[in-house]
Amino acid sequence: MANSWKCDGVPKDGKSYASQNPKQKHEPYENFGEECVICGLPKEAIVDGSSTLPGSAIAVGIIAILALAAVTRGDDIWQSQFCLKGQQKINGTCVAVPSSNYSASTPTTKPSPTASSNPSKVVSSPVSTSMYATTLAEVANVPRGIARYTGSTTFAPLRTPGILEKIRQAHIGYELVYVEPPPGNKPSCKIGIKMLIEGQLSFSQCSQPVKDDEYKKAKDRNFQLEQIPIAIDGIAIYVNPKISIPNLTLSQLKDIFTGKINNWKELGGPDLAIIPISRDPQDGDTPDYFKEIVLEKSDFADSAQPYVSDTTSALKKVADTLGGISYATASQVCNQSLVKPISIGRSANRGFVAPCNGKEVNKTDFAKDIYPITRRLFVMVKRDGKLDEHLGVAYVNMLLSDDGQQIVNQAGLVPLRSIKSGSPK
């Protein structure tokens, strides 16, 4: 596209920009507005320089937000380190047990308050509450091998070179390798699980629970998929910043995106047509989740089509459309000046909650499920007792360690566990 430009987080003019957050290199990302979606660098810092980015760079968002004070999630916390199938925790060590006595020492996967899941799909049982490792290096039973993975772009903040290097240094011989989806497919939970089932991956990353048909396909191949939550995320609703739009309830959002409400004056706003903007729910995890949870499986309105290709395009279209409204992972919205996030309520009499605190994600209200549209982020592990299972379980244990949850926090996502603020060792 003629007006697009790519940013990798490195100002080509050599200057320092106060608006940049984080101030570090990230994977090249295609932008259409005046600021980079990932780091906030202005267009002139990149375009006016002498260097250009490779045209083949992968357009995925790597969002990192400075560490906030740790948040406490008092419920649904499992204080254990995962063991492999056929092992159980004894005095803090994973040891093999006879298959007839096997009870997997992974915590029960509970559903998100706003999402449906099927705990019966997960082989698990709660164990001791004091077995999480403190540092990445202290995580036990990490095998040597190449852990191949792909999945939802919501996990992009956890794929930065800096994070991968921390893991590599903590466990020499354990290497994470991101795998591109097959030609014609975009990165998504759906594609990741398909590749995992087909034996192309060690684990996959998902922003929604495993679906019944996916579970069945795995079972037909004589293994189980286990979804293990490692973080919490929220979806932000945003509009054009030039108009005054009221707070919205979930039912009003549904009516907007299904075409029942078509003018902002029906909601107390200006006499202006509403233009809902969305990605194809068949082509991404966030629109699929939005359709299932917010629209309650109703179809998007005809006015939402043609669908935009990605979040960057949606941000640009809302910024250019006075009556536009769209949605995205909160960490992709909160640091934007081109659009305005709005507060959402479960109902008019229950209050409205903002997805952002200034330029940062509202992690406290996400963690406590006060914000209405939150979801858990899962690592999907293939339970077959082979090397890929070992590699996947090790990755989960590292992300659920104290250091791992700090990494989650610093990436702009919400940690599952209560942690002390600071940098991973």
TrEMBL record:
Its keywords, alphabetically, are: Signal
What top-level branch of life does the organism fall under?
Bacteria
What residue range is the signal peptide? Answer: none
Any idea where the PBP domain is? 147-402
**InterPro entries, A to Z:** PBP_domain, Phosphate_ABC_transporter
Q: Which residues cross the membrane?
A: none
Q: Where is this region: Disordered?
A: 1-27, 101-122
Record-given protein name: Substrate-binding domain-containing protein
Its source organism is Aetokthonos hydrillicola Thurmond2011
